[in-house]
Amino acid sequence: MGLRLGGGAIGVDLNGDGDTVDTGETLRSSYYALDVTDPEKPPKLLWRFTDANLGFTTSYPGIIHIGGTSDKWYMVVGSGPHNNAPPATRGYKGESTQQGRIYIVNLLDGTKAMTFSKLGINNSGVSLDSNAFFGDPTIVDGDLDFTSDVVYIGSAISITSGKVHRINTNNDPDPAKWQLSEFINQVKPLLVGESISKDASNNLWVFFGTGRLWRVEDKTNSDQQKLYGIKDGCWKGGGTTRLATVDANNNVTPGATDTACPVTYTPSNLLNVSSTEVKVATGDTQISGFTTGTVSYQTLISRARAAHGWYSNLTDPAGPSERGISKSVILGGVALFTTFTPNPDPCSFQGDSNLYALYYETGTAYIKPVIGTTGSGATETVLKSKSLGKGMPTTVGVAVGKKTKGFIQTSTGTIVEVEAQPALGVRSGPIGWREKTGGGGAVEIEEIYKHIVK
Question: Is 211 among the domain residues?
Fold first, then answer.
């Protein structure tokens, strides 16, 4: 665990020699590993990790496992806002005056295994951005072989810009042989973790929304923020992919040649579905706002599968812009995002929140209602979003039973319950059993429940 915005750098004379320049006499924000195995005993400190360039420890730690004979475990975090400046100028408002870095730490003893300060393998490429800090990492074992394949981690650069980076582990236990690359570099700040899913063709999708709310000035920011769903053809590391391009009318041109991985995606590789609406009525007029005229849902799906994903612009009023500041949830083919539009009054804590329920392949409403419809007759439209009322929302908590429900708590204390109908099947139930012998030879039948998401 980290100290978040606690632990601003401070010099302490530990040896009584009248100065604070000796090794270990600068105390700063750190990550701690605690042994809490026995709840009846106080936690035991296993190790502490810090670094002169770490900044505040605001990046939530992720765990990387490399299986096989080496069986290595690592913690991955990004550097946070700067904390070495005098207290009055520290980055408490989510600012950084230093270069962003990504740290790989041995989970066994807390020693530093690798610091990524440049792209490439073993810092062989260009330097990472200045005036930047990183958000929460997402670690993916894409082929379920108990080895982490790829890490995604977003950043904030000079407050209003950002990127998403990827680290390919190449199944190698030595982090010096891992490769850091830019996943997408034309985005706004992204400081919450990405969400991951796979489609029927085994493509790995990465979902996230952009935006930040760290300081009073962020409340009035009107930059255009977006929701994204991107297919990463380079999650496994190595190999090649073909980069398709998308024009202003969402016509997709497949890539003509192979491009070596890793590649960096841009909005020109993605469908713009910001204005796309899905009507309940089927046929060639079901989809509007997607391209010139109206098209069928099958045309939308075909182009979505030919492109590398999609993006959707959030509301961008004259005042504060709508933004994604909570992690998305993927369930039954639906990507659930919560968004927030701040009240520009610096003395007000209430803004407005929304829930988006988007089909994961298209970034639009699904062909059938998930959270309802609006209108009637030929103009009846499937809703892709709905208001959650006042207050800043949490990530959606999902409960699957006879019905699928989402629960979102807002900063007003209200818990909003939303009933949803997933696009794809979601089922919970027994998938097997085993005999369990208890004391005295009694035989118990134990059901094994597993949550399955198609």
Answer: no
Q: What is the pTM of this model?
A: 0.90
Q: How far is CA 342 from the centre of its chain?
A: 21
| CA–CA distance, 147 with 71 (Å, rounded to integer) | 9
In 3D, which of 99, 322, 301 has the Cα closest to residue 224?
322
138 in the same domain as 73: yes
* 444, part of any domain: no
Note whether 410 and 353 are within 8 A (CB). yes
E-assigned strand segments in 53-101: 62-66, 72-78
| Residues 181 and 312 reside in one and the same domain | no
Residue 280 and residue 143 share a domain: no
pLDDT at 415: 92
Phi, psi of 400 (to 5 degrees): -115, 120
Shared domain check, 226 and 305: yes
Buried b (16+ CB within 10 A) or exposed e, 51-72: beebbbbbbbbbebebeeeeeb
The answer to whether residue 451 is domain-embedded is no
- Whether the upstream peptide bond of residue 369 has omega within 30° of 0, thus cis, is no
Whether residues 43 and 157 fall in one domain: yes
Residue pair 174/153 in contact by the 8 Å Cβ criterion: no
d(Cα 268, Cα 84) in Å, to the nearest integer? 39
Name the pairing type of β-strands 195-198 and 179-187.
unpaired
Q: Is 203 exposed, middle or buried (0-12, 13-18, 19+ CB in 10 A)?
A: middle
pLDDT tens for each residue of 26-39: 788 999 999 999 99
Alpha carbon distance 80, 78 (integer Å): 6
**Tens digits of residue pLDDT in 269-283:** 999 999 999 999 888
Order of strands, sheet of 334-341, starting from the edge strand that comes earlier in the sequence = 329-331, 334-341, 352-359, 385-390
When divided into structural domains, the chain yields a total of 2
98-134 burial, b at 16+ Cβ within 10 Å, e below that, comes to bbbbbbbbbbeebeebbbbebbebebeeeebbebbbb
Asked whether residue 213 is assigned to any structural domain, the reply reads no
Max CA separation in the chain (angstroms): 83
Torsion of CA 188, 189, 192, 193, to 10 degrees: 60
- Does 174 share its domain with 242? no
* Residue 86 belongs to domain spanning: 1-193
Local confidence band at 216 (pLDDT 50, 70, 90 cut-offs): confident
- The verdict on 267 and 124 lying in the same domain is no
Q: Average model confidence (pLDDT) for the chain?
A: 90
Q: Given a cut of 70, is residue 443 above it in pLDDT? A: no
